[in-house]
Write a structure and sequence with these properties.
The chain is of the alpha+beta class. The protein is 56% helix and 10% strand. It has 27 helices and 19 strands. The model is unreliable at 250-259, 266-291 and 514-616 (pLDDT under 50).
Length: 906
């Protein structure tokens, strides 16, 4: 169905405890049934900050939807909302550059948009809430964005906000099923603190889907907010036109307007019926409370004692109440004096407790009551300041800031605390950047566990920093990959050791027995592998290049198995420097031979010449390769830091060929990824530049956003995005004027077409096509004028011929008849009121200036019209001469703003 709306209603009231700092778009005066966009922003920080923040954010979203990136026939989604959010944050930052005193301003936001595809989009940041209500039932409500913080000895929920300190993220929800009679309620927390969901259901159950009851519902909410609402109450009530298929019967009303709607009791709505439970037969015969007769008798005997105790307790309560009612001044004085003593002693917690008890009593001495309230506020302020200083001395900066903000809530003019908060916020930013920098350094050397710990500390200081979250995810992924890799290598090493042991046993079986090697002949096969184990310097294998290698003692010769890369020990004969001899000692059993029992003796050696390699040459070669690899890795690291990733990759590959270790391989993988990212980044930027050059600014903007995902620190894409936004805005103005000119040309209004085309010339450098359109319009205008003149001459000739036939006039032979040239009819001048209406509809641009000049109404025009026209020439058309002319005339007509602009132009 095509969604059509009834006239919406809005509410904007200040709370009993907070100033008015909410902004609604549209305002109550601008609400019509044709409205499709509704925005509610609630600021935080008082009039100086919260009211300004809510106004900036509401205006930014409205501008983005209607001017910067008009939604048109598209449906509002998450990406569109996020771009609008970034636009609003840029507006806040721009305001802070010129108004640093408003630093710290922030606001929540709720948005409702009725799309062209008959769906409804809800978007929100913070605790502004949207309800979708149908037939007295809540079909959907948004979830608040809140975070928990420790305040006054307990956890307090604070809403997420849009601010300049860190990027915000909005949630969106698209409602696809919309029926006639559906209600949409967009409201602030002030309304929700006054009315529960049950109260809302009761209010809407009394609706008969007419404008009167809708207005009455808003009026009832307004009355309730004035009675008990502590916070700002703001809301939009939007109803889809039409009656529901099966409407609920409306409650009977005694009159029209607000009195026709009964308000619910706060906390317990009216209309809740008590359910009656029917008793079954025989239930009356059951024992009382399920007790037996003896138990009931015992309870009955105790009833007099319980009754007497109850009477005494009631009498004591009544006496205390009567005493408090008859002597409130005395009780007030006791608590007041006790509270002031605690305040002077610096015991602020007890002072707050006593003074809160004092102000409960109603006394006639208003001066004393005012003093008690002032002392109570002073105690709370000093207590919060004391807690903040304690947190600061303990190094807990976030809790200190929270306490200092409590001080500002009580006393906003405390300049010392404001400076403390500013200094702490700067310190937090510095600490966060220091932690992130250290974590980046650790990630470069692949110490991901330590890097993750530092990033978690930084995340505490900036809880919604997406860059930190991404880096934490990277560290977690790498740590998981390392654990999986180590487990796999352990399994592979165990299998390789088993195969090595089998190969060693097979080799030993082929060794011929030597008569002089009596000790070797006496050893069993189970004992010989123990010699190999004892010759290894470490009991754990070393993993290189995903393949395990068992390193042997350098004093023995080694033979490498080409299939597994495993070094097995061999014993060489007649070579003292490379032989292994075992001599049993009384203290050492043969089955547990240690390296200390191994000596070099030529007479007890067994050799296998075909499979021996000098261990000294092997160890020296391995040491040289490791040294060269380390030097190459150092050169690669230096090239990587300089940004020469190709050279770095070449060094890492050479190091990997010399020493196949995991560090070199990881550096190779990281450098290849960096090269791929760098290549992708350059390609995307090149495509974006090409799209920008062709004038496809929307595509270029999207590509620059994609480039930022690879190089978030590069300023070039961000600058180009700003240029794209400016070009898009200029292109929109250009398209508007060109479209208006084309429409005027098609309608035959050639003068207006020429005026619109000339206005479009200001917004483009490619003037060929526009000059062609202007020439065509002028040609058409000339043709139109010639045709009109010819028609007039033909009409005059026909009239003359007709007159000649009716009354022949004698013609003198000596005279030549001269036909008088018809006068050009004067164009009626437009009234000043019509011209000002045209200026408003046209956006106060060049056609407005032309109409004022051609109709001699420039000097009589309204000062606001002239001021807006001057801003157009100054900021859009860059024509300072016309801008000065408009400002001067506006100043003559009494505009102070125009006088200020003239001073800046001079």
């Amino acid at each position: 169905m095509n969604i059509s709306l009834k006239t919406p209603y809005s509410l904007r009231e200040a709370g009993l405890a907070t100033p008015l700092q909410t902004t609604l778009y549209p305002t109550a005066e601008e609400l019509t049934a044709n409205q499709r966009l509704f925005i509610l922003c609630e600021g935080i920080g008082g009039i100086e900050k919260g009211d300004v923040a809510s106004g900036i954010i509401a205006n930014a979203f409205q501008e983005y939807f209607q001017k910067v990136n008009p939604i048109g026939t598209k449906s509002v989604g998450q990406l569109y909302i996020n771009e609008a959010l970034r636009y609003a944050e840029r507006r806040i930052n721009k305001h802070l550059q010129h108004n640093p005193a408003t630093y710290g301003m922030k606001s929540t936001m709720g948005l409702l948009h009725f799309n062209e595809d008959n769906t409804v989009t809800a978007a929100w940041v913070g605790d502004c809430r949207l309800y979708h209500i149908r037939k007295n039932q809540i079909l959907y409500k948004t979830e608040d964005h809140v975070s928990s913080t420790w305040q006054n000895g307990k956890y307090v929920l604070l809403p997420k906000t849009i601010a300049a300190s860190e990027p915000a993220w909005a949630s969106t929800h698209v409602i696809e099923e919309v029926e006639p009679g559906d209600y949409f309620l967009l409201c602030s927390q002030g309304v929700l603190e006054t009315l529960t969901d049950r109260n809302l259901k009761y209010l809407f159950s009394q609706s008969d889907y007419t404008d009167d009851t809708n207005q009455a519902i808003v009026g009832k909410v307004k009355d309730l907010c004035k009675e008990v609402g502590q916070r700002n109450c703001a809301m939009f009530l939007v109803q889809v036109d039409g009656q529901p298929a099966n409407p609920l019967p409306a409650k009977k009303k005694t009159g029209a307007g607000a009195s026709a709607i009964k308000g619910p009791d706060i906390g317990k709505p009216k209309g809740a019926k008590k359910s009656k439970v029917k008793k079954e037969k025989g239930e009356a015969n059951k024992p009382l409370w399920g007790k037996s007769a003896k138990e009931r008798a015992g309870l009955t005997s105790k009833l007099p004692l319980l009754l007497a105790l109850g009477i005494l307790l009631g009498a004591a309560v009544i006496f205390a109440y009567n005493y408090a009612m008859t002597n409130p001044e005395e009780l007030f004085k006791q608590h007041y004096e006790s509270g002031t003593v605690f305040l002077e002693e610096g015991n602020y917690e007890n002072a707050i407790a006593e003074l809160e008890k004092a102000i409960v009593y109603e006394i006639e001495d208003t001066a004393s009551m005012n003093k008690a309230n002032r002392f109570l506020a002073l105690s709370k302020e000093r207590y919060a300041l004391q807690q903040g200083n304690d947190f600061l001395s303990n190094g807990d900066l976030l809790k200190a800031i929270a306490k200092y903000n409590e001080v500002l809530d009580i006393n906003p003019n405390n300049v010392e605390v404001q400076q403390k908060i500013f200094n702490l916020q700067e310190q937090i930013v510095v600490e966060k950047e220091t932690l992130v920098t250290e974590a980046d350094s650790l990630m470069l050397i692949e110490d991901f566990k330590s890097a993750k710990d530092l990033l978690l500390e930084a995340l505490v200081l900036a809880r919604s920093d997406s860059a930190i979250l991404t880096k934490i995810d990277t560290c977690v992924a790498r740590l998981e990959a390392d654990s999986i890799f180590i487990a796999a290598m352990e399994l592979e090493a165990a299998a390789a050791e088993a195969e090595a042991a089998a190969a060693l046993q097979e080799a030993e079986e082929t060794v011929p027995e030597q008569p002089e090697d009596r000790f070797a002949n006496e050893m069993t096969r189970e004992e010989r592998p123990a010699i190999v184990e004892n010759n290894r310097p470490n009991s754990e294998p070393t993993y290189n290049n995903y393949r395990p290698e068992l390193r042997t003692n350098p004093s023995t010769s080694t033979s490498t198995n080409p299939s597994y890369g495993i070094s097995s020990t061999t014993i060489k004969r007649n070579a003292p420097s490379t032989t292994t001899t075992t001599t049993p000692t009384p203290s050492t059993p043969r089955t547990s031979i240690s390296p200390s029992t191994v000596t070099s003796t030529p007479s007890t050696t067994i050799s296998r010449p075909s499979a021996t390699i000098s261990s000294s040459s092997s160890s020296s070669t391995s040491s040289d390769n490791s040294t060269k690899a380390a030097n190459l890795i150092g050169q690669g690291d230096a090239s990587y830091k300089k940004g020469d990733y190709k050279a770095a990759l070449r060094f890492y590959e050479q190091a990997y060929e010399l020493d196949r270790n995991r560090s070199a391989e990881n550096k190779m993988r990281k450098t290849k990824k960096k090269l791929d990212d760098d290549s992708n980044y350059k390609d995307i930027v090149a495509n974006a530049d090409a799209a920008f050059k062709k004038g496809d600014y929307h595509k270029a903007k999207q590509l620059y956003w994609n480039a930022l995902s690879f190089e978030s620190a590069d300023q070039y894409p961000s600058q180009r995005i700003e240029e794209c936004n400016a070009k898009i805005e200029t292109t929109m103005e250009l398209d508007k004027y060109v479209k208006a000119g084309d429409q005027a040309l098609a309608a035959g209004d050639f003068e207006r077409a020429i005026s619109q085309y000339e206005s479009a010339l200001v917004h483009t450098t490619d003037k060929k096509s526009l000059d062609k359109k202007i020439r065509r319009a002028k040609q058409k205008l000339q043709e139109k004028k010639k045709a009109a003149l010819a028609a007039k001459e033909a009409a005059a000739a026909a009239a003359a011929a007709k007159a000649k036939t009716e009354e022949p006039v004698p013609v003198k032979p000596t005279s030549v008849p001269v036909t008088a040239k018809p006068k050009k009819p004067e164009r009626p001048k437009e009234s000043l009121r019509d011209i000002e209406k045209f200026c408003k509809s046209d956006g106060f641009s060049y056609p407005c200036y032309v109409k004022l000049k051609t109709n001699d109404q420039f000097a009589k025009a309204d000062k606001r019209v002239l001021f807006r026209l001057g801003k157009h020439f100054e900021q859009v058309a860059n024509d300072n001469s016309k801008a000065k002319e408009c400002y001067q005339q506006a100043a003559r007509n009494g505009s102070d703003q125009a006088k200020n602009r003239l001073k800046k132009l001079k």
